[in-house]
Amino acid sequence: MEILSTDILVIGGGLAGMVSALEAEKRGIKVLLAGKFAIGTGTNSSLANGVFASANSRFSKEEHLEETLKAGRGLNHLPLVKAMIETAPEAMETLTALGVPLAETKGGYMIDRPTGSSQLAGILLVKALAERLKRSTIQPLRSDCRGRRSSRGLWVPERRETRSGAIEGCSIGDRRCRGDLPEK
């Protein structure tokens, strides 16, 4: 059985997992990225419409707040909504820097699809991030987990901390993973 060592194990091969892994790598952290299927496929991100609400030169933070509260019909948690609105432009800059083709719209941004393209915007989104991952040091791991216990799935039965500070106890396929705890 192959034993892998990492600083961070990111579980989930969609938009959030891929961006998290790439951001951690940018900070010099060794990353393993595990997903149920090939990274970027089989995720909600790949099926998404590729539209992101965010303030820009055509859509103010005030408009974003108003639209979000209206869509939430009073169920929004205002401090979280305000935090999202404040950080959304930076998130769009991060996606652009990672190679995601974004076009500014009245309500934020959308995936900039080539003229005549029939590909889903979500596919273009994850394709750009997957291409960036190929140029990284991040090791993608496919688990083939199909909701049943098998030697090919990702399982974290329990967290075990060794005397050296390593975390052990998850399996991906026929591999065992462990990672050192970050300094506090």
List key phrases describing it.
5-stranded mixed beta sheet, globular, FAD/NAD(P)-binding domain, 184 residues, 5 helices, disordered C terminus, alpha/beta, 11 strands
Walk me through the structure.
- It is a single chain.
- The protein is of the alpha/beta class.
- It has one domain (2-180): FAD/NAD(P)-binding domain, CATH 3.50.50.60.
- It has 5 helices and 11 strands, in the order ββαβαβααββαβββββ.
- Strands 1, 8, 9, 10 and 11 form a 5-stranded mixed beta sheet that branches. Strands 2-3-7 form a 3-stranded parallel beta sheet, with helices on one face.
- A hairpin with a 2-residue loop joins strand 10 and strand 11.
- The protein is globular, with a radius of gyration of 19 Å.
Short description:
With 184 residues, the chain is of the alpha/beta class. It is 34% helix and 25% strand. The radius of gyration is 19 Å and the shape is globular.
Report on the biggest sheet. 5 strands, mixed
Which percent bin holds the helix content? 25-40%
CATH class: Alpha Beta
- Report the β-strand fraction as a percent range: 25-35%
**CATH superfamily, please?**
FAD/NAD(P)-binding domain
Mean pLDDT: 80
CATH architecture annotation: 3-Layer(bba) Sandwich
Overall structural domain count: 1
CATH topology: FAD/NAD(P)-binding domain
Q: Determine the number of helices (DSSP H or I, runs of at least 4 residues).
A: 5
Number of strands: 11
Judged by helices, strands and strand pairing, the structural class is: alpha/beta
Regions with pLDDT < 50 over 5+ consecutive residues?
144-159, 178-184
Distance between the termini: 31 Å
The radius of gyration is: 19 Å
Helix and strand run? EEHEHEHHEEHEEEEE
Which of globular, elongated, flat, extended, rod-shaped describes the shape? globular
